[in-house]
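Re: your question about Queuine tRNA-ribosyltransferase

S., sorry for the slow reply, the queue was backed up all week. Below is exactly what I fed in.
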Amino acid sequence: MSAIKFELIKTCKQTGARLGKIQTPHGEIQTPIFMPVGTLATVKAMTPEELKDINAQIILSNTYHLYMRPGHELVEKAGGLHKFMNWDRPILTDSGGFQVFSLGPLRKIKEEGVEFRSHIDGSKHFISPEKAIEIENALGADIIMAFDECAPYPADREYVKNSLERTTRWAQRCKDAHKNTERQALFGIVQGGMYKDLREQSAKEITDIGFPGYAIGGLSVGEPKPIMYEVLEYTTPLLPEDKPRYLMGVGSPDDLIEGVLRGVDMFDCVLPTRIARNGTAFTSQGKVVARNAIYADDFRPLDPECDCYTCKNYTRAYIRHLVKCNEILASRLLTYHNLHFLLKLMEDVRTAIQEDRLMDFRNEFFEKYGYTK
Ligand SMILES: Nc1cc(CSc2ncc[nH]2)c2nc(N)[nH]c(=O)c2c1
Ligand SMILES: [Zn+2]
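Result:
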């Protein structure tokens, strides 16, 4: 028996988009969904109560980072991640594969696993698929990711083929090592770079092993958007219709909509929280770089069409002032707004699917946001 139950409610007649529901041990998730990222057991600058105010349904945390600091044993001793961070809704943990591979020359990939040096103190570590599952079981997230290699972009065919085949062998080892199937759903991750035949091979191998949900990995790694959309176009149909599909590391407003149109159900990205800390806001008319002098005496809200706490109570002029003074409140107000913006966007997308008008919604949003058609 798996820890989650996915219900496919509707497929949009105009597009490949799906409306769904995922039941988890910590509550229900409506899809398509955007998942705020809380790498170190906190969605930076937000309290759990503020996340609930903006209807965040599930957040992400990270195996590699929490293994490094404070250590998964401590989190387990605290009663698991939910208790430790005071978040009683669903959590998803990434396996650390991506983070370890991002360490670049500091890591060595072997069949057994990955040897790497800590980005904190340079100490030597080794993570195998079994170790990653042990850490994720200790953290206790409702959805956990298999330990995979996210091939860099660009990468030649030979490398990508060898890498996806090792990721398949690791996926089987993760499934064999995962004990907590009743309370933690293990998702497989499809790789294969930007090569159609390798994506088909990886999708077949990973779905043959069998998981309650599937992620599309190896995208949003610097490839041009049209290539990401093309890979999605031929990869999502290879995944079972009755299981959730998660596109890792995506994304910006346009990528979320284009991903939903191509049958993706779940997304996560550090963008909304990261650009907030750099003083930039998503708005329905495109990005607002708050630091820009043009906002010095602009007493309108960040987004006149937004009804969030930030937009109801503060002006661009005030937020620019906070950003210029590097005030902590700048990060808080901008993060609150950016997360609300993406969560509201996904709520509007779900409504558009329900009403079979997602393509019209896309065109209206792109027009207003300033994206080219
Ligand atoms: N682009 C991208 C992003 C992430 C990180 S998702 C994430 N982790 C923590 C926060 N967000 C990926 N993670 C894994 N395991 N595999 C991938 O192929 C991959 C690709
Ligand atoms: Zn707002």
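The CA atoms of residues 14 and 357 lie 7 Å apart. The chain is about 40% helix and 15% strand.

Happy to talk it through on Thursday.
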